[in-house]
Amino acid sequence: MERSRVREAAFALIFSMPYHEDFNAAAVCEEGVPLIEGIFGEKISQKNKGYIEGRVSGVFSNLGDIDGKIKAALREDWGIDRINRADLAILRLAAYEIFFDGEVPPPAAINEAVELAKAYGDEGSAKFVNGVLGELMKS
């Protein structure tokens, strides 16, 4: 499974975070990965499962910092609560990769985020995600 598909799986689980009362990254990954395998129609290797869980737990562990960075990159009249859930999950994943991961070069993280926004967001999502991440990189 290529890295973009693995990132897409991580996005799907990060998207589900607000829907879990007691979010636990390991448990969500344990339950969610088999569902994602069914949707994608292919098995996820142990290495890729670790990659997914690392992204999900990394976002969850650093959520306050990540959301603070996203808020700082928004226009003054926008709050994080105005961002649709898909775009927010994409921004959270990209911000984690840019500021906390160190494995993914920032331009690659931005490009992958824009591609996810094209696939899962609405008409203006790709432009919005690119703009917010561009502001994040300036700070």
Give the rounded overall mean pLDDT. Answer: 87
Task: Specify the helix fraction band.
Answer: over 70%
- Spatial separation of the terminal alpha carbons: 34 Å
Taken together, the total number of domains comes to 1
Taken in chain order, the helices and strands follow as HHHHHHH
Indicate the structural class. Answer: mainly alpha
Superfamily at the CATH H level?
Answer: NusB-like
Report the count of strand segments: 0
Rg (CA only): 14 Å
Any idea of the CATH class? Mainly Alpha
| CATH topology-level fold name | N-utilizing Substance Protein B Homolog, Chain A
Most strands sheet? none
- Our estimate of the beta-strand percent is under 5%
General form: globular
Low-confidence sequence ranges:
none
Summed up, the helix count is: 7
State the CATH architecture. Answer: Orthogonal Bundle
Oligomer: single chain
